[in-house]
Amino acid sequence: MQSFDNSERNTEPGAGADPATAAEPAAAGSPHRWRALWLLGVAQLMLIVDVTVVAVALPAMQADLGLDRAGLAWVASIYALVFGGLMLLGGKAADILGPRRVVLAGLALFTAASMLAGLAAGPEVLLIARTLQGIGAAAMSPAALSVIARTFTGSELSRALGVWSALGGAGAALGVLLGGVLTAGPGWPWVFYVNVPVGLVLLVCLARWIRPLPGSGGRLDAAGAALVTAATAAVVYGLVSAGDFGWVSAQTLLPVAAGLIGYLLFWQRIRRAVTPLVDPAMLRRRPVLRGLGLIFVATALMISVFFLGSFVLQNLHGFTALETGLSFLPVALGTILGSNLAGRVLPSWGIRTVSVTGLLIAGAGLAAAAGIFSMTVLIAATSVAGFGIGAVFVAAAGSLFSVVQPQEAGVASGVLSTFHEFGAAAGVSAVSSIAAGLLIPQFEVFAAGYWFAAAVAAGACLAALAWPREKAAGAVSG
């Protein structure tokens, strides 16, 4: 696919050709491609919303189902753990079977599991339903991004990635708002029931408007899939635990160490397997590594904004959960605007310029939130940060897909989505550790978390500036 760094042709080992040749030629002329993009974006939005929509409903669930503290934690985290752990497997399945088939199967499972979760009369059924939701999401999300990468070309691809990133980036804020509205209204089961009509409509429309895309065929490396799934789940679990127990606790270090060992074994596996889950050469490409780094940082910053903001608004300013969700709408709108604008300028500006600009804007917004004691400034500053983070989301996807071939699009999407989950888990655990007194209603406690996030954005900006320019035929660009 095309390098967005203004180069004539990327010569990175394993790099793809121009998007006009990397995507299937018939895809560019598909009359329903933009309609399908928006539908896939809404489906992705639904998956992201389900990460945060449960948070506001947990007290009501506890009262109705008799959940203990551990049960509450698992209801909130099991979906994200399964979602993140199985994403690479879902992406590889999309490459082998064809992404359209996997999108529809994953969406159908997610919709059915949502109905089961709403009907749950006890904690066991609810946890099973949340696990099934995670499996469906892990299949659908990377497969949907693979459809986009194989359907759009050239400048259209960057615009499509902007739409995708905008809708996904707004999901966390909309989840908090939707959770408050539904829990306060018809009740907590509706945080799950609402997925059912939306999912059914999406299934019908996507089955009609996504054209069949061929799979590569072949066999799935079951051993490699088991290794990477277990390793990813262990690392995500360890990072989540760091927020509760600290970075040097056994609850954090042991799962992370087990996950790292699992990744070492997985690396050995993919180097020797006849049909590896991931081609090791793809993971060595510099644009791929840059994209993974950017998505990790962008997601960590975004989740930090919502996590810290929720405590500031509720514990310091006395907002209700619903009022907090409404206050996050400007952040969601900023993310949407930043993603869409970045998608339009990415082909002309290049990945480095877009990522550096986005990180600078995000860092400035976070620093303003940390340094000024004002609720109005906090909402405005975090909205500015959301604008910059939205641009970084697009730069991350653009960098990765600039060197990915169509037959790799699914697994590449899975890798990108996995680092998205890593970023979310790391962001929450880091800022909760920095702002150790989150329940103390003092601005200085929260400011430390915002300063830390601003420093991360500044460091990532310097790293983006120092990243080597991609080599092109007869030219160097960045």
From TrEMBL:
Biased composition (Low complexity): 12-25
Domain of life: Bacteria
Keyword Isomerase annotated: no
SUPFAM superfamilies in the cross-refs: MFS general substrate transporter
Membrane topology: Multi-pass membrane protein
Region of interest called Disordered, as start-end residue ranges on this chain: 1-25
Keywords tagged on the record: Cell membrane, Membrane, Transmembrane, Transmembrane helix, Transport
One Pfam family cited in the UniProt record for this chain: MFS_1
Segments of skewed composition (Basic and acidic residues): 1-11
Domain spans labelled Major facilitator superfamily (MFS) profile: 36-471
Protein localization: Cell membrane
PROSITE patterns given in the database record: MFS
Membrane-traversing stretches: 37-60, 72-90, 102-121, 127-149, 161-184, 190-210, 222-240, 246-267, 288-313, 325-342, 354-373, 379-401, 422-443, 449-467
Protein name per the record: MFS transporter
Upper classification of the organism: Bacteria, Bacillati, Actinomycetota, Actinomycetes, Micrococcales
